[in-house]
Design a protein that fits this description.
This protein has 669 residues and is α+β, with helices and mostly antiparallel strands. Among the domains are: 265-412, Jelly Rolls, CATH 2.60.120; 564-667, Immunoglobulin-like, CATH 2.60.40. Helices cover 18% and strands 29% of the residues. The protein is built from twelve helices and 36 strands. Strands 1, 3, 4, 6, 7, 8, 9, 10, 23, 24 and 25 form an eleven-stranded mixed beta sheet that branches. A six-stranded antiparallel beta sheet has the order 11-22-12-18-15-16. Helix 4 (184-193) packs across helix 12 (537-551). The relative contact order is 0.11. The model is unreliable at 1-30 and 663-667 (pLDDT under 50).
Length: 669
């Protein structure tokens, strides 16, 4: 959903992760590193628990690991992998950790601390760096804390689980030089938490802008959720036979297109046999994204647009191996040449697709691209010189001009995404960024994601709960999960409306409420109407730390996240909502009565704004809706709602939807 610039790895590192260099100057240069890349200078290990340490040696080698006066030994298996479990150590350090074999190979890493280690994961709001947060200049200048360290896992996707993170990823101390690139939410969380939990904090950030939750889950987890067997089977085929998988995907995509209402049998924009001028217009690619073309229908359009051009080739050119080069495409494309599907990519980068032999021919050749855009600048644009067909003999034919476009009706919906894409795929980021974390021990996990799933909020709770179980299967059965409820973004509502973002918030609320080892940080009031990436990550960090103190560290007298709805009761023509976890009393900001409450019937579109009065820990609601028709209560149900109900802690009551059960007087969330 949300494109942002990401750090790039070399192609060799992405494909094979084989560009590793020794992780410590103290490693024996005559041998490959024994320790997995997670274990390097300045690392932090989890206090109070046995820590698993692993790596690679020669098959059958006996490996001994020493750390903080503790020692453990293991023998490498047939593939050379070894793992030991070090006894628990109290918070402290710095220590050295040494792995050695009986054949003289050894590796030592230094300046290792022991404290609490957190996994910070999600999409762009977890990625957002300190340099983009509020008061960034002062935050960077004053960043000096040897006891907060961060490891940022580079963006890597894979169709199969990987064993290691890139060896170029390093544990870094909090310094003015390092902190600008730190995850702001994760860093400010640790800084705030350290005020009451005075131990070193280790932060492992595995986050990728624009990613859907499905890309962060293992194949087993998605199969348990259900409904993903077909795409997962195709993903498995892709890992073995990419050409065959591509052919099957092309067939599935075409079937989707022909299933759209109003699409005729001969409406095939990719097919040179069905070229028509109907609905096609010149595409002014020199003006940039389609939102900037000056066309009213495209000024605020997010959705799908077809692009096409025709390129004339000689017989000699068509007989050669060729590559199709496209300039910036934002954000997901499906690309065909002469009716043959040649590739798909997600993101805002240039494309390069190999053209299979026999695809091109002398004369006119059709290039057709379907582009899906869901956030800001969309389409095919950028440097015109980057659009070309290049050939094996070094020559090229320009594709700078001659493009046409056709807008796809919004009623068609979003096209399906290929399962091996990175941020929009299935399991691909789990394989590339979670699986490589192996058995590293974490105190808990922070999860800030959901913006890319707002198109389908109905299934998000099941997916989030499955993701939590997935993380726990890998990192510990009771791994605490701190969930950030989505911040407000977009125009404020003028009337009750349906909202995919509100649906995601409700799924997050329910998932957190359903688990004793989970907590919710409400962020709806610290969003920004014009930026989906709110800059006030300091306040978010404070709220996450408060949740951690309650959920993880057992401060049960400290309400974790402000007023929480406890029950709903019908009283004649009124409905009352009682809140729990209220500090002192409910308060209303900016008015005598709280805003944002709705009373609803059973049907979509039946909600009415309610007049609300506060009495102690209870809000009483009335609306222009017969009491007998009221079945639901909603609060702050919009993309960017105006929420005015707080308590004396300064924390807001979060968005929610509760049922009013006709058969009983009280309904519980």
């Amino acid at each position: 959903m949300i494109h942002q610039a990401i750090r790039k790895l070399s192609a060799g590192c992405l494909l094979a992760l084989a560009c590793a260099a020794p992780l410590s100057a103290q490693a024996d240069d005559s041998h490959a590193p024994l320790l997995n890349p997670l274990f390097q200078d300045h690392a932090i290990l989890q206090r109070g628990q046995a820590n698993r340490v692993w790596g690679q040696a020669d098959a059958g080698d006996r490996v001994t690991v020493t750390f903080a006066g503790k020692k453990a030994t293991a023998r490498a298996d047939a593939k050379g992998r070894w793992e030991v479990s070090l006894p628990a150590v109290a918070a402290g350090g710095p220590y050295t950790l040494t792995a050695s074999t009986g054949h003289g190979a050894s590796q030592t890493i230094g300046d290792v601390l022991v404290g609490d280690v957190w996994l910070c994961s999600g999409q762009s709001n977890m990625v957002l760096q300190v340099k983009r947060a509020l008061d960034a200049r002062a935050e960077v200048q004053n960043a000096s804390n040897d006891r907060i360290r961060m490891l940022i896992v580079d963006n890597v996707s894979s169709v199969t689980p990987l064993d290691s993170i890139p060896a170029t990823d390093h544990w870094l101390k909090t310094t003015p030089q390092n902190v600008p690139e730190f995850s702001a939410a994760c860093y400010f969380f640790a800084r705030e938490l350290q005020k009451t939990v005075d131990v070193p904090m280790g932060l492992v950030v595995a986050a990728w802008g624009g990613s859907r939750i499905q890309s962060w889950m293992s194949a087993n987890a998605l199969r348990k959720v259900g409904g993903y067997d077909g795409p997962l089977d195709l993903l498995e085929l892709y890992a073995k036979d990419r050409e065959k998988a591509g052919t099957q995907w092309d067939e599935q995509w075409r079937a989707w297109w022909h299933s759209r209402p109003g699409v005729s049998a001969d409406d095939e924009p990719w097919n040179p046999a069905h070229i028509t001028q109907q609905g096609w217009q010149p595409a002014p690619l020199d003006k940039g994204a389609w939102q900037h073309w000056g066309q009213p229908e495209l000024a605020n359009f997010t959705g799908t647009v077809w692009y096409r051009t025709v390129v004339k080739l000689t017989a000699a050119q068509a007989a050669q191996a060729a590559t199709l080069h496209l300039s910036t495409v934002n954000e997901a494309d499906q690309t065909w040449v002469n009716g043959r599907w040649v590739g798909t990519t997600y993101g805002g980068d240039p494309r390069a697709y190999g053209i299979p032999a026999g695809t091109l021919h002398a004369g006119d050749n059709l290039v057709a691209i379907n582009v899906l855009n869901t956030y800001r600048d969309g389409g095919l644009y950028g440097d015109a010189s980057q659009r070309s067909l290049s050939f094996a003999d070094g020559s090229a034919v320009s594709l700078a001009g001659g493009w046409q476009y056709r807008v796809v009706p919004s009623s068609y919906g979003s096209p399906p995404g290929v399962p091996w894409q990175s941020t929009q795929g299935l399991t691909t980021i789990y394989n590339g960024m979670i699986a490589p974390l192996g058995d590293y021990v974490f105190r808990g996990a922070l999860w800030y994601q959901g913006e890319s799933n707002t198109g389908d909020p109905t299934h998000y709770q099941a997916l989030l709960e499955a993701l939590r179980n997935d993380f726990r299967a890998r990192f510990g059965a009771q791994l605490p999960m701190l969930i950030v409820q989505l911040a407000g973004y977009g125009a404020p509502p003028t009337h009750p409306t349906e909202s995919g973002t509100a649906g995601i918030r409700e799924a997050q609320r329910l998932a957190a409420a359903d688990d004793a080892h989970s907590g919710l940080a409400v962020a709806v009031d610290i969003g920004e109407r014009t930026d989906i990436h709110p800059a006030n990550k300091q306040e978010l960090g404070r709220r996450l730390a408060r949740v951690a103190r309650h959920v993880v560290y057992g401060e049960k007298d400290l309400p974790p996240s402000g007023p929480v709805p406890a029950s709903v009761q019908r009283n004649g023509d009124a409905v009352s909502v009682r809140f729990k976890d209220v500090t002192d009393a409910l308060v209303v900001y900016g008015a005598d009565h709280p805003l944002g409450f709705e009373l609803c019937g059973a049907q979509t579109g039946s909600c009415h704004y309610a007049d609300a009065d506060v009495h102690g820990d209870t809000v009483t609601l009335r609306a222009s809706l017969p009491a007998s028709d009221i079945t639901r209560v909603r609060y702050c149900w919009a993309d960017s709602p105006i929420c005015t109900l707080y308590d004396h802690s300064g924390l807001p009551a979060g968005p929610f939807e509760l049922s009013v059960n006709r058969s009983s007087q009280e309904s519980h969330p």
